Amino acid sequence: MAIHPTDGAGHTGRDVPPATVARLPGYLRALDALTEDGVVTTSSEELAERAGVNPAQLRKDLSFLGSYGRRGVGYEVAHLSEQVGVVLGLATLRRVVIVGIGNLGHALANYSGFADRGFAVVALVDAAPAVVGTTVAGLVVEPLDRLTAIVEGRGVSIGVIATPAAGAQDVCDALVEAGVVGILTFAPRALRVPDHVDVRAVDVASELQILAFHDARRTATGA
C-alpha cells in the first residue's frame, strides 16, 4: 500500500512506494544527526552516507516527496526533516498502548524516543493480577479487560504487543476489536489481522539467526 503525501496546501502528491517508506525513518535519523551537528544544508552524498544508502537511491526516494534539492546548494536540513515527518504522519500526535508489562514492556514504557518522534504512551495493560496496579514510567498498569475503554477513551490508534508468543494473537484480536489500526509486535509469531490494520513485527531472534547464517557462510568460505 502506497502512502499519499500532501503539500502545505493540502494537495495530494505522488504515491510513496512501501520500500521508500521503509527507508524514510533512516533519512529522518540522519537529518536529526545533521541538525545536532549544526548543519543547515546537506548534499545527497552526505545524507546518503549517513543513512547507509547510495545517493541515487536517496534522490529517487526524496523525489516522491517532491523534494529535489537545489543545484549547488543541496537540501535544507530543517525543511527536508519536516517533509519526511509529514509523510510519516509525525505531524500528528499518535497515542499508544503497550500490552504486556514484563521486562520488555518495562523497557518500552521507559523509552524516551517515543516522545521525541511524536508518540505518546498513554496506557499500559497486562493480564497478570500481580502486575496490574503497579506503576511503570509514571503510568498505572491496567487490566486487559479495560482495553476497549482505554482505546476509545484515550484516542489510542497504535498498540504495542510485548507479550509471550502464546498469547499474542488473542491480544492482537482484542486490540483490533477495540479499534486499534496499527500494531507493533515483539512476539515471535505471525499475527492475523484484517486488511485495514497494519502490523509491523520486531523479531530479535530471527534477526540474530540471519546474522548467524551470514557468519557461518563467511567462516565456511574463509572470508
TrEMBL record:
It holds the Pfam family CoA_binding. Transmembrane segments: none annotated. InterPro entries: CoA-bd (IPR003781), NAD(P)-bd_dom_sf (IPR036291), Rex_actinobacterial-type (IPR058236), Rex_DNA-bd_C_dom (IPR009718), Tscrpt_rep_Rex (IPR022876), WH-like_DNA-bd_sf (IPR036388), WH_DNA-bd_sf (IPR036390). One of its GO terms (biological process) is negative regulation of DNA-templated transcription. It is found in: Cytoplasm. Residues 26-65 bind DNA. Keywords: Cytoplasm, DNA-binding, NAD, Repressor, Transcription, Transcription regulation. The keyword NAD applies. Its main location: cytoplasm. GO terms for molecular function: DNA binding; DNA-binding transcription factor activity. GO terms for cellular component: cytoplasm. Residues 89-190 form the CoA-binding domain. It comes from the Bacteria. NAD(+) binds at G100, I101, G102, N103, L104, G105. Belongs to the transcriptional regulatory Rex family. Modulates transcription in response to changes in cellular NADH/NAD(+) redox state. This is Redox-sensing transcriptional repressor Rex. The lineage of its organism: Bacteria, Bacillati, Actinomycetota, Actinomycetes, Micrococcales. The gene is rex.
